[in-house]
Amino acid sequence: MERDTRPSWDAYFISIARLVSGRSTCLRRKVGAVLVKDRRILSTGYNGAPSGLKHCLEIGCLRDELKVPSGQRHELCRALHAEQNVIVQAAYYGTPVAGSILYCTNLPCIICTKMLINAGILSIYYDEGYADGMSRSMLEEAGVELIQLAGAAKMSSNKD
Fold first, then answer.
1. pLDDT tier at 157, thresholds 50, 70, 90
2. How buried is 159 (Cβ within 10 angstroms: 0-12 exposed, 13-18 middle, 19+ buried)?
3. From CA 48, how far away is CA 59, in angstroms rounded?
4. CB–CB of 82/32 below 8 Å?
5. Which one from 58, 75, 83, 145 is the annotated catalytic residue?
6. pLDDT in tens, 11-38
């Protein structure tokens, strides 16, 4: 048994994104996001209603009521996506995010993808896919590295 075994950096940050997703107030999908630069956390975000407004946990889900399929009609939702919140939180506190890496529990939707591209995010590490194929092609065109971390709870020996 190796004494120095601990999570890789990727496993560490994606596990934090999973933990952040636990704060989500969405009834359909809990998503967490973490922005990282130079192995330091810049900001975290989860999906939920804007500050001070009632959450779907309290008033129900309009998308469910209207039977809106996943990946469609994003404007019919009270919540901000985790990726939007992670950028907004960084901006609120004056933290520059250009050149950072996003760790997210889900592949971003097309709206979040456009925001992440314009925010200067270099790479996106994620757990699960999302029903929005256009986001992948835009990320590729923009040169944003996209990595799916299947079972990212792997451990590795890291001396750094």
1. very low
2. exposed
3. 12
4. yes
5. 83
6. 999 999 999 999 999 888 899 999 999 9
51, 124 Cβ separation under 8 angstroms? no
Tokens of 38: 């130079």
Cα distance between residue 87 and residue 66, in whole Å: 29
d(CA 140, CA 45): 24
> What is the per-residue DSSP string for 67-102?
TPPTTS-TTS-SPBPHHHHHHHHHHHTT---TT-EE
CA atoms within 13 A on the CB side of 41: 18
Mean pLDDT for all residues in the chain: 89
**Global pTM value:** 0.88
Residue 83 annotated in active site: yes
pLDDT tens for 88-101 read 999 999 999 999 99
